[in-house]
Structure formats: structure tokens, C-alpha cells
Amino acid sequence: MERLDKILASTGRWSRREVKELVRAGRVTANGGVVRSPEEKYQREGLDLQVDGQSVLCARYTYLMLHKPAGLVSATEDPRQPTVLELLPEHLRRIGLFPAGRLDRDTEGLLLLTNDGALAHDLLSPRKHVDKTYFVRVEGKLDQSDVEAFSGGMTLGGGLACLPAGLELLEEPDEALVTLREGKYHQIKRMLAARGKPVRYLKRLTMGPLALDKELEKGDWRPLTEAELAKLRSVPGAVSENPQKNLPDK
Ligand code: URA
Q1: CA dihedral 180, 129, 232, 206 (to 10 degrees)
Q2: Mutate to test the pocket of ligand 1, among 84, 106, 189 (most ligand atoms within 8 A of CB)
Q3: CB of 112 within 8 A of CB of 65?
Q4: Which residues form the domain of 45?
Q5: Which of 202, 205, 206 to probe ligand 1 with, by most ligand atoms within 8 A of CB?
Q6: Which burial class, exposed, middle or buried, applies to 179 when counting CB atoms under 10 A from its CB (0-12, 13-18, 19+)?
Q7: In which band, very low, low, confident or very high, does the pLDDT at 241 lie, cut at 50, 70 and 90?
Q8: Once rounded to an integer, what is the mean pLDDT over residues 91-106?
Q9: CATH number of 178's domain
Q10: Are 158 and 192 in contact (CB under 8 A)?
Q11: Which residue has the higher pLDDT, 220 or 181?
Q12: Running DSSP on this structure, what letter comes out for residue 58?
């Protein structure tokens, strides 16, 4: 059970003082009844909370799928460059969301934003073997020798050993799908540079069971569906157990 003011303030929309005023004005209902005091306690899961008759989404954790465009850094703050969080509305920038797994500034595609540290940790741990797939376009032509180099586990400059990775050749000789189960710094760019075929374009398509929604325009985002979240949680070792009962709106 949690205090109503804490639950409402955690949505990022109102301060605790503002919540107090909303309650005093009789504008808040919980499970159908008018809330009399901001100190009243409720079970967050499944709570039907409304302000001025509008449902307020108050899940403990938030999970967003973002189609990252090039030009933004995968960080929560940066002194010089815009971050992916700038694509979100104000209130969703105040609830501790961070990118689960970075993409380079010029890489596009699937980025999961969440404030569920435990789930993010599990998805990113190389020991959990969560595959990530990328579409890549290179300078030059890819061939079977690149496929074999990737599957054999490449060693990069400085002796950095990579786990075996997938390279699936596509119809265009400069395009392929790459599958990684780890995320070393600039890994795909470094692996392909080592093959003499520098990356010209890179886009992440999947992360474990989660695939970039084809309907999602570059720069756009949406909450994960319950089905997507259930699939993510089914990744072996994924421990988070707080279901996202409500989904945040824009
Ligand atoms: N590998 C890279 O080189 N860059 C990315 O953004 C992701 C994987």
C-alpha cells in the first residue's frame, strides 16, 4: 500500500503540493470514490485513479519502445548534445527513464526506455544471452569470409575478444543482418572495420523477443504492450516482477 500523493507524484505530472490541492478540491477519485486525504493508502497494482474524470496511469515502472533517429545520444543527460529523452514529453522526463542498452549517436532503431533497473540489467547482461539484431550497410561487399569471421568470434585491436556473432548476407552485397549477444563499445563498427568494410548505416531491429514496431516513425515512441512486456520478462533470468498494469499516455 502506498500513499496517494506518492503514487500521483510518481507520474511526473504533479508535485506533492499540487496533489494536495487537487485532493482538497475533490478532483481525485480512486477506485470510484472521491479521495479525501493525500495520505490515504492504496494498492498501486490495478488502481483506478482519475483526476477530473481522466484516468491517470500510475504503474510503478514504465517501458517505452523508441525508434531512435540518428543525431541523439543514448543517455539521460549530456552537456553538449541532445539526448533521446528529449523526444519524450515533460512528465515522462521526470520519472527516471533511461535507455536499456546504448546505440551510437548515428545509429537508428530500437531503443527500450525504462526505469526498471532490474529488467534492464538482465537484458543487457552478456551472461543472459539476449540477442540483438541489426541491419547494416557497409562500404564494399560482404561475403562468406565475413560470415565465417563473425561466427568464429573475432578478436579486435588491443586483443578484445568478441563472442561468436551472426552475419546474414542479404540480397544487396553491401547489406547484412548482424546478431550480437553482447554490446561492446562500437562493436559492429569495429568488427566490420577490421574486415575492411566500414559501416555506413546501422539500425537495431530487435532485442531478445522485442522487435522494432514497423509502424513507429523515426523519433516516435510508444509504451510496450502487455504481450511485449510478458515476452521480455520471459527472457531467462529476467527478474522484474512488478507488472505494468497501466500504460503511460503521451
Ligand atoms: N554496434 C555499433 O558499432 N554501434 C551501435 O550503435 C550498436 C552496435
Answers
A1: 10
A2: 189
A3: yes
A4: 2-55
A5: 202
A6: middle
A7: very low
A8: 94
A9: 3.30.2350.10
A10: no
A11: 220
A12: -
